[in-house]
């Protein structure tokens, strides 16, 4: 492990509670002027490891965010973005070209601009506006997906400071305390889960407030563990996916449905989980349940991310890989930069 983990991904993963605490404390205390009042919609621009935190927030707080909230994963903003729109730039490095392109678009349209970043051109833009520029002292690996606590709680803190999300500090503090106390136990569970996921095509099944997390776990498995992943959600998958499990034949050997089970899902969805698992088993595909124990939706989301971070790391170890390296993404960016 010491030889493979040259960037200290494990150390960053263990510091997830500290990332969350730092980001929440710093971002929620930001002061926004009159320019940021009377906002009518929110557009977040982000890619990869800087996209799944706001996607998590969109689903986690869909009943509490006060204005329409959309995520853009492209070079341009929707046509409706104007001076009454809050554009949130999400880029851990501050150098993501799609986000920079959207930032320039937002400036031309006179939008209210804020964001979450650690530096780069995005930080320069935010100096002319108001945003959260953090120092990632609890992410020695310097990998955005391993520093998800900064993006996740940084965005939540921004929305709190802007009065666009009603959330008490006590709710956040209790959730962070919970995962801090449970880190060792979750880490042990992650080792066992990683063994189950090795050499599997994993279907990550989530619902309602955890749908954004499902996408985040898929991202971590791709980049950190270098394995394919397939985030899906109930009830949507019940309308088509169950009929697509007959072929290819390899699916019955390599496929695994990983259900994230929560007692905070609605009663209808909890029933669907039981029947969906039955249907999958009847088609001879392996299933596995992860039962979340947090008392609140935020606690369960942080619990799930703690588990996914450790699981992705240990999968990389079992596959004899450096979890920090992303050679194909690096190659792609290098080729893209050529004239």
UniProtKB/TrEMBL annotation:
Coiled coil: none annotated. Residues 32-175 form the SIS domain. Gene3D superfamilies: Glucose-6-phosphate isomerase like protein, domain 1. Keywords: Isomerase. Transmembrane segments: none annotated. GO terms for biological process: carbohydrate derivative metabolic process; carbohydrate metabolic process. One of its GO terms (molecular function) is mannose-6-phosphate isomerase activity. InterPro entries: Glu6P/Mann6P_isomerase_C (IPR019490), SIS_dom (IPR001347), SIS_dom_sf (IPR046348). It holds the Pfam family bact-PGI_C. Belongs to the PGI/PMI family. This is SIS domain-containing protein. It comes from Candidatus Gottesmanbacteria bacterium RIFCSPLOWO2_01_FULL_43_11b. The lineage of its organism: Bacteria, Candidatus Gottesmaniibacteriota.
